[in-house]
UniProtKB/TrEMBL annotation:
Highest taxon of source: Bacteria
Family label: Belongs to the precorrin methyltransferase family.
Protein name: Uroporphyrinogen-III C-methyltransferase
PROSITE patterns xrefs: SUMT_1, SUMT_2
GO molecular function: uroporphyrin-III C-methyltransferase activity
Documented EC number(s): 2.1.1.107
GO biological process, one term: siroheme biosynthetic process
The keyword S-adenosyl-L-methionine belongs to this UniProt entry's keyword annotation: yes
Domain Tetrapyrrole methylase residue range list: 3-214
Organism: Staphylococcus felis
Keyword list, A-Z: Methyltransferase, Porphyrin biosynthesis, S-adenosyl-L-methionine, Transferase
Length: 259
């Protein structure tokens, strides 16, 4: 009987995939994978498995969601064991919830395999804990890309005055707006901020600053990158442990930009 596995591939380092995810990949007849999935993970797949790209680039919307949905349904109804492989965790800004709803409506058996989300892993690899007894007892995972019709004003008021740590996904292009909205709604300009590009991989680069100067300091940073806002960023200088490599034409230099 066919089955669909909604699987989190983790944040980038292929060693951070779970054993349960590996077992699902090993039995898959077809793997529908996203842009940020590390291709090294495919070593766990059967040589006969179909590998089907369903990525969505910030600059090129490669495959509309409804087409991905239809592909997943078609393969399952043909009797395939399908793995829908997503970067990070399928239920953290991965549209896994929408796909699970669809499978339930179509009475197709499915299983959800959680993954490590980049909102925790990227800061961790940069030496930034998202919570700390002395700095932060609350954290919010936020997307900079919101659905049309969202009450944006109320949202930013809550984010600026509520959680002590913000982990913001998909926000690099909107960094100036993020900075402005947080300051407008009460965050101090000297609040520490970090951007972690390609977190957990050998291309990882971290830039730190404050709300007042981070836009200028991080102008060269591109997607994918996590934005972390809060006093926990100050801990990076004490507990940074992962050597970050510059990805410049074969040069391998430790690259750390601090406050």
């Amino acid at each position: 009987m066919s089955k669909v596995y909604l699987v989190g591939a983790g944040p980038g380092d292929p060693d951070l995939i779970t054993l349960k995810a590996v077992k699902a990949i090993q039995k898959a007849d077809a793997i529908l994978y996203d842009r940020l999935v590390n291709k090294e993970i495919f070593q766990h797949a059967s040589p006969q498995a179909k590998l089907l790209y369903c990525g969505k680039d910030p600059n090129r919307y490669t495959l509309p969601q409804h087409e991905t949905n239809q592909m997943m349904l078609t393969l399952a109804k043909k009797g395939y064991t399908v793995v829908r492989l997503k970067g990070g965790d399928p239920f953290v800004f991965g549209r896994g919830g929408e796909e699970a709803e669809l499978l339930a409506e179509q009475h197709i058996p499915f299983e959800i395999v959680p993954g490590i989300t980049s909102g925790i892993a990227a800061p961790m690899y940069a030496g930034i804990p998202v919570t700390h007894r002395n700095y932060s007892s609350s954290v919010a995972f936020v997307t900079a890309v919101t659905k049309d019709g969202t009450d944006d004003e109320e949202r930013w008021q809550h984010l600026a005055k509520g959680p002590e740590t913000l982990c913001i996904y998909m926000g690099v292009k909107k960094l100036p707006q993020i900075r402005d909205r947080l300051i407008e709604n009460g965050k101090q300009g000297d609040t520490p901020v970090a951007l972690v590009h390609m977190g957990t991989t050998q291309s990882q680069e971290t830039v730190t600053g404050t709300l007042s100067n981070i836009v200028e300091k991080a102008m060269h940073i591109q997607n994918p990158a996590m934005i972390i806002v809060g006093d926990v960023v100050n801990l990076r200088e004490r507990i940074s442990w992962f050597n970050e490599q510059s990805n410049m034409q074969g040069d391998h230099l430790i690259k750390v930009t601090s406050l």
